From TrEMBL:
SUPFAM superfamilies noted in UniProt: ADP-ribosylation
Taxonomic classification: Eukaryota, Fungi, Dikarya, Basidiomycota, Agaricomycotina
InterPro entries per the UniProt record, alphabetical: Poly(ADP-ribose)pol_cat_dom (IPR012317)
Name of the protein in question: PARP catalytic domain-containing protein
Residue ranges of domain PARP catalytic in the record: 100-227
GO molecular function: NAD+ poly-ADP-ribosyltransferase activity
Organism: Favolaschia claudopus
Amino acid sequence: MQYGYGYGYYPPGPWSTNPIYYGAPIPQFPGPDNEWSRTLLQFPRDSSPQFTPPSAPVLKRLKYSESRFQDIASKFRESWLHTDRKLANIGFIYDCQVDETLWYDYREYSERVGNTQAPLWHGTSRKCTLGDDPSNAELCHNSDCSLCQIIKTGYKTGHARSSGLLGSGIYTTTVSSKAAKYATTSKKSKYNVVLYNIVAVGRRYNATGPMKNASSPPPGYNSVYGNPGVTSLGPGKRSLQFIETCIYDDNAIEPLYMVLFTEE
Ligand SMILES: [Zn+2]
């Protein structure tokens, strides 16, 4: 069975052909956030009838000549909006295939919240050199290596940064340079790593102020959207410079691609 909006093949089973839509229309935001649209979610891997989720995570390097490499690299460059950080080079991009349990959990969750999905970046810490050597892209066993942990066992809200303006959730963004701020790496590597994810945003709550103590979205919502300038701690205090979206459920996000890059 294939849905019409491009996310791809679903296995037979509990998937509804009539996803539940929440009443409000999906708002359109200026700039990169116009990506909030199901129809733009084209992920060739999943839409291949040959694709079945693996039993253990798989990383596959995309060739530079592949259209997926070009597409993701362009998105990464176009959404690099910080003028005080300069992207130097995109070294490698990997197709990250999570195991079948995570794959099904994400799709089940997404179905539950109306299949409103968005492709969003997330920067995390890497303690190993995963991806530096394409012939040996093996996940490490260091439990402090957030990158390998995410690919192996999924995102965990339990590891969320508690200092976030939108509470203890998983932070994602349409702005690649914002995700890059949170990408730290092993001293042995010249690359930083950002993950490109599919996120089941469901019904989004537009934050009107800080929500530092939140551990879930307000009742009736599935995610919280922080708009630049809107979410502020008051005059003279820190406010969001760039868009971010916070989710509070481990199953609401799946990493799809891993981008290795350098900054000037
Ligand atoms: Zn690692």
